[in-house]
């Protein structure tokens, strides 16, 4: 673009240059401060969701859990696997504060169990294996009651309970008592109750047992969404294909002791599946030969 012309022939108007002024003695310190980048705040790393050190639980003369040490990172979908009687449910009961350890320490979300058990319980949601619910309540009453126990106001607890029951398709018979629920309905009710206070850690003991394929798919999608939002899932399940699809990390317990801990890819040998790995580690490779009379 040509510079603009003046009324005087042969003379052109030159646009002024807007250069920064030379710093004076008074302005130099201020300029130096402005040029210095402000330090970024240091964000401390999140504590592990679960830290177990030398955890032992003895019943009579048997160690149900024997010197278990385990770290579950925050924001992880963690599978806790083992055969029947390996110590999985006992471990979850100690995490919940329902069974005090004989020896060892439990730290959850940076807090110590049992010294800070009340604060810990405010931060966790539980789906127990036995799904012990209040049978003489309706599903809505139970889920609302759970929300109230976690400190939600009556209005918020009721609104969330209604939304959760609709989500889990448990609202079609609002007057039906939990005593009349099927096992799958009880699991979905327990899952709804575990979500109502938006916990940071979920303890799930066989949550999909007895749940139909549609309900199980919904539960899996909800749990994955919780992990995407930063929550941690601690899951036990005998359905190893589900664990292999969902979990970031797994630990395998046998006779109360950890026999493997890591990602599935880290632990597998070659092309073996998680089921192959599990059977190899817990010593379940018995002969598949039929009995003579079968």
Question: How would you summarize what this structure contains?
Answer:
With 294 residues, the chain is an alpha/beta fold. Helix content is 33%, strand content 21%.
Please characterize this protein's 3D structure.
The model is unreliable at 6-19 (pLDDT under 50). The protein is of the alpha/beta class. The longest helix has 16 residues, at 213-228. The protein is built from ten helices and ten strands. Strand 1 (50-59) and strand 2 form a beta hairpin. It has helices spanning 28-35, 88-96, 117-121, 139-149, 154-167, 183-195, 213-228, 240-246, 264-267, 274-282, and strands spanning 50-59, 62-72, 77-81, 103-108, 111-113, 124-127, 201-205, 232-236, 249-254, 257-262. It has a domain at 46-123 and 200-213 and 231-282: Rossmann fold (3-Layer(aba) Sandwich).
